[in-house]
Amino acid sequence: MASETYLSLTPFLFAMANTVFSVSLATAGIFFVSLVEENEVIAMPVQRSIQGGCQCGRIRFITSQAPLDVNYCHCSMCRRATGGLFATLAWFPLEHLAWSSEQPAWFRSSKMAGRAFCPHCGTPLAMLYDGSNQIGLLLGSFDDPLPFAPTHHYGIEGRLAWVDIQGHLPARITEDDPAPH
């Protein structure tokens, strides 16, 4: 092993040689690392990447941006595109998303949106409204979806009466020309 010694003081405080680092979680996926050196604290935000992909592993995505929004969508197109009772989408600026392996295939699901999926295993991955600068990634395709709780329901006119999930959240109907959430 290298001559550097790692000492674990707590889950969020560690030391390497004579330098002490403090790591704290501020918001979903964003960590702050504080460097304590000679009684001087230097705080540096460090955002962990958010990664995910398809079931077979050929299509992967990565972003270092926290989601702008996370929602449930109950519209019939989301139900059919995912094969589930609703979709759970996390919205990111398109410019901050990278496909880190193969590109997904796209299906034109309506006159206003397309859906990304893996052409090898069929995993649904994303949706993109025409002309939008935001992409909705399906939360189930994230490596770690736990930190990203939905904040509202969308497309509630398609919500099945017996679906009982977080009914206390705000809800909206699908619009004819929806804006990114």
TrEMBL record:
Which Pfam families does this one have?
GFA
Q: Where is the CENP-V/GFA domain?
A: 50-157
What domain of life?
Answer: Bacteria
Q: Which UniProt keywords apply?
A: Lyase, Membrane, Metal-binding, Transmembrane, Transmembrane helix, Zinc
Where in the sequence is the signal peptide annotated? none
Q: Look up keyword Glycosyltransferase and say if it applies.
A: no
Q: Does the keyword Zinc apply?
A: yes
Q: What is this protein called?
A: GFA family protein
Which protein family is named in the record? Answer: Belongs to the Gfa family.
Q: Where are the transmembrane segments?
A: 12-36
Instruction: Fetch the InterPro entries from UniProt.
Output: CENP-V/GFA, Mss4-like_sf
